[in-house]
Amino acid sequence: MNKFKIYEYKEKASGLLGFFKRKSQKVPLGEIIFHNDKVLLAGREIPLDELQRISFAQFQDYAGRNDEGKVSEGNNNVVELYWSNSVKEVCCFALEKRYQLRDVKQQLITYYKAGKLDFENLILILGLEDYNAVQNFKNSILGTKDGKEI
């Protein structure tokens, strides 16, 4: 089971008496864990049926990534959870290695099949770009071949 550290942004005053600049800093909030039937978010259990949609707005940052001369801490990834009552919760999460999010592939496929994750978001996370690879993947998870059920 893969756990991802989550963060929230806090405003922090910097400079002389804090008057000159306000700097955002990430404060650890807990972990997010993806299960087939639920999401654990900072100790809260969220059943999948209570979510309207899940979206990974950013998922390319990982610890050690060289970004314009700066080494990243890997915590600039964003997951958005849309509740059934139209409330949106946004969390920053950290990846320790480049393709770590792919480790929860089965859970992401389950979310897609449940109508909670867009297919485009799923194939971007999994790194599928070739048309044939995308079609083969889609057929394999839906149990179809050439659009017909097998």
Characterise this structure:
The structure is a single chain. The protein is an alpha+beta fold and 150 residues long. The protein contains three helices and eleven strands. The protein has helices at 105-113, 119-126, 131-142; strands at 3-14, 21-34, 38-41, 44-47, 51-58, 63-67, 70-73, 77-83, 88-93, 144-145, 148-149. A seven-stranded antiparallel β-sheet has the order 4-3-2-1-9-8-5, with helices on one face. A two-stranded antiparallel ribbon has the order 6-7. Strand 1 (3-14) and strand 2 form a beta hairpin. The protein starts with a strand and ends with a strand. The mean pLDDT is 87.
Percent of residues in helical segments? 10-25%
Structure class: alpha+beta
- Beta-strand portion reads over 45%
Q: In DSSP terms, counting alpha (H) and pi (I) runs of 4 or more, how many helices?
A: 3
Order of strands in the sheet with most strands: 4-3-2-1-9-8-5
**SSE string, helices as H and strands as E:** EEEEEEEEEHHHEE
Major sheet description: 7 strands, antiparallel
Distance between the termini: 31 Å
Q: Which spans of ≥5 residues are poorly predicted at pLDDT below 50? A: none
C-alpha geometry: globular
Rg (CA only): 18 Å
Secondary structure tally: strands: 11
Overall average pLDDT: 87
Notable traits:
alpha+beta, 11 strands, seven-stranded antiparallel sheet, 45% strand, globular, two-stranded antiparallel ribbon, 3 helices, 150 residues
